[in-house]
Specification:
By secondary structure, this protein is an alpha+beta fold. It has one domain: Cytidine Deaminase, domain 2 (3-Layer(aba) Sandwich), CATH 3.40.140. 28% of the residues lie in helices and 23% in strands. Strand 7 and strand 8 form a beta hairpin. The longest helix is centred in the last third of the chain and has 14 residues. The protein starts with a strand and ends in a 12-residue tail after the last helix. The structure holds zinc ion.
């Protein structure tokens, strides 16, 4: 059902978290899959946001935004992708395309704490692909390293 990618071994950081370094081909594939998922934005196709994530099983899962007229109950593409992944037993997120809003960074951060994987955010900027661990995007995170539930 979902596209699969072969992953290389992660590195273990000093804090015990794992971090994966992706090759450029995988980054481009994820960015491309995220772009392709724009066709699934709701209620209007190609009007909103979409992302792709990669799990530690090598599974690629996309998410597209689901808009509400209230705006604040709109489901962001990152939340859709994370929920979709969880429904398929995939809760260990290696990478996700970005940039992401602060609410979504929080979701990715909490997922990262649970899995002990420092999820890499893949950003294309001026034609160059960057891989930024979520921990670097959350300099003063809450919660710090432990979840309360
Ligand atoms: Zn968001």
């Amino acid at each position: 059902m979902f596209q699969q990618i072969k992953l290389t071994e992660p590195k273990q950081k000093d804090d015990g978290f794992l971090v994966y370094e992706l090759d450029e081909e995988t980054c481009k594939l994820l960015l491309n899959e995220g772009d392709k998922a724009l066709q699934f934005t709701f209620p209007e196709n190609n009007s909103g946001f979409a992302v792709a994530l990669l799990t530690d099983k090598g599974t690629v899962i996309t998410g597209a935004s689901y808009k509400s007229d209230t705006h604040n109950t709109t489901m962001h593409s990152e939340a859709v992708a994370l929920a979709r992944a969880a429904q398929h037993g995939e809760t260990r997120i290696v990478a996700m395309t970005g940039p992401n809003c602060h609410n979504c960074k929080q979701l990715v951060w909490e997922s990262s704490i649970r899995s002990k994987i420092d999820t890499v955010i893949i950003i294309e900027e001026e034609g160059k692909i960057k891989q930024v661990p979520i921990s670097e995007l959350m300099p003063y995170p809450w919660p710090d390293k432990e979840l309360t539930h």
